[in-house]
Amino acid sequence: MTDFVSAEWVSSRGDDLRVVDVRDAWEYDGLGHLPSAVNVPFDSFRADEHGAESDAGEGMPPDEDDWAKLLSEAGITPESDIVAYDDHHGVFAARFLVTAELFGHDPDRLHLLDGDFSSWQLERETTSETPTVEPTNYEVTRPDSTPLVGPDAVADAADDPDAVLVDTREDEEYDAGHIPGAVLLDWRDLVDDETRGLLPQDEARSVLERAGIVPDKRIVLYCNTARRISHTYVVLRHLGFEQVDFYEGSLTEWEAQGRPLETN
Ligand SMILES: O=S(=O)([O-])[S-]
Question: Cross-referenced Gene3D superfamilies, in alphabetical order (predicted)?
Fold first, then answer.
């Protein structure tokens, strides 16, 4: 399953690990990047607006062909181990990894750097050399099942004693309007301000437990446009949560459909 990996782990791996930097091109080129990292900017794998309807509701992943092209140009194959990073505590990189999972990349081959570019460069080498990449012919194989759920399943989760519906936005946003029955867990509460990575696991589990988010429940995640839930999704999978549902349409779709909101 998609997991967090340390800087040591990344440094110790050979050329078989594809390192993906999802920052903007100016940051990658101008500020330097991790050795051997390729640049796949966040904007390149995110549709501008919610796209075609699917069974799981509207979302913002790219077209399948565009995704395959991006990965091909990055020298990635379906067998590649990938580690992704950004400079925002991993939230943009997590979106890359979730997109890869939704398009069928083996989740066991998907890793999020624990920390980000800022924390890496405090202790480790960076480079401004762009690696030579051998393009591949990446082919998407859609998985048999995905964690995606649509709005009806989200509405049902609120009434299901075995499920916890989780809003991963900030408390002001939650207070202004959230899906009825949702608990609040700001995704940043799982981030260690000092390391810019995941809190130590016992602390992360306590934060989650305080919000009622425990492994024997089905967890259903939403935010505004499925960026912040990507980070929480990776955290929960890393911590061994087995049932984590991902509402790709999130509040953008929920509100567009005129569904109810609760305020505090
Ligand atoms: O992170 S977000 O999708 O809520 S803007």
Answer: Rhodanese-like domain (3.40.250.10)
Amino acid (one-letter) located at 177: G
Looking at this protein, which amino acid is placed at residue 235?
A: V
Q: How far is the CA of 10 from the centre of ligand 1 (A)?
A: 28
Nearest CA owner, ligand 1 atom 3: 225
Which atom of ligand 1 is closest in space to residue 224's alpha carbon?
4
Domain identity same for 105 and 153: no
Complex ipTM: 0.90
If asked whether residues 80 and 176 sit together in one domain, one would say no
Spatial contact of 249 and 50, defined as CB atoms under 8 Å apart = yes
- Of 211, 207, 229, nearest in space to 220 by CA: 229
As a whole number of angstroms, the distance between CA 172 and CA 142 comes to: 37
Contacting residues for 166 by C-beta, under 8 A, at least 6 apart: 182, 183, 184, 185, 211, 213, 219, 220, 221, 222, 232
Closest approach atom of ligand 1 to CA 169: 4
Q: Which atom of ligand 1 is nearest to the CA of 226?
A: 3
Tell me how crowded residue 122 is: count the other CB atoms within 10 A of its CB.
Answer: 11
Whichever domain contains 34, its CATH number is 3.40.250.10
Mean pLDDT to the nearest integer, 164-171 = 98
Kindly state whether residue 42 falls inside one of the protein's structural domains.
Answer: yes
C-alpha dihedral sign at 65, 227, 95, 219:
negative
Q: Which residue has the least CA distance to atom 4 on ligand 1?
A: 224
Q: Are residues 106 and 20 in the same domain?
A: yes
159 and 240 assigned to the same domain:
yes
Residues whose beta carbon lies within 6 Å of some atom of ligand 1: 169, 223-228
Give the residue numbers spanning the domain of 219: 148-257
Query: Which of 254, 172, 257 shows the shortest CA–CA distance to 220?
Result: 254
